Amino acid sequence: MTNLAESSPRPPQPRPREVIGEETLGWAIVGASASAAERIIPAIRGQSSLPAPDLRYPLCNARVVGIFSHDEDRARRFAETHHIPHSFANLADLLARHDVDCVYAGGHPRHLAQTTLAALAAGKHVLCETPMALTLGDALAMAHTAAGRGLVLAVNCQRRVDAAIETMLRLLLEGEIGDLLGGRLANIELLRPSLHTWRLRPNGGGVALDRTVHDIDLLRFLLRDEVQTVAAVNTQHLLSDTVEEDVVALITMRRSGLLFQLHDSYILPHDAGGVTLYGSAGTLSARHVFVDDEPSELALIRHGRPVSVPLDNVDTYAEAIARFHAAVRGNGRPIAGSGDGIRNLAVALAVRESIRRGHRIQVELPGRPFDDRSLA
Length: 376
What we know:
32% helix; alpha/beta; 6-stranded parallel beta sheet; Rossmann fold
């Protein structure tokens, strides 16, 4: 019999008192989204305190200063619910605050480029959601602006630091599955009714910009390679007649020439999805890497026999924020830079173009005249 005392959720433990200092990073949240509420804000507030031996209390690492939404009432309610000191219906007012150092650009994809360019112009570092823009021209403008002002522009590709993905990368580099032969990625999950908004409408919606960008990012990260060609089809429409919602794509990589299959869908339930890589000596398969509500798993089959692969699961959002903070403080790089976002976007747009034209598309990647951590 289940012990009710054990099964009931425990209330969150209060954090020790902290001091706000000059080294504390102030965040502005743009977009009163569920992701901001459930993932980003807790990750910011949960960062370890900074050492401050001359203070009675530890120094606060980062705090959320304010929230902006195009809907003033929504911003106010969001601020009250999540204990944010200030809410704004005018983005310029939030960006003008001297206690804001960093901006999380979330919300509708059609606003991301404009939000990011405004934040960079105000001298703020930016962590931008995916896709970082809807056009390559806007994405390049964002990257050039950040580089010209000496600011950090990162793209929230937090799946890279999932425990299964990082372990998969290590085993791949160590040759555990021999020579790589190919693979497949499945980013499939039934779209919840609460998300039947912009994702099912033009100008930012569709599975290619919402999910395929993450497939491409993980492939680029794991293989240290770029996409050469794309051939994609939109299999069916069940939720919307205006955007793609179930896409199967075949892509070839630039240096290796290897072929990979992608399947991204809003309409297929009951499957964990994930990343599978085939090698001459074995197979690596990572499950639950595209979802936030289940810990990821990694299976290794080597010479026909399963091998146990233990994982130390981490909070990917907390790690993404930690590395972003380090980059802002000049102590490292973010998980993914603007160049990664641009290249991921280029492939996602090629997927859409292939669907529209009905044939294979050669992916044209822009040059790299700015400092980033891309893998070209």
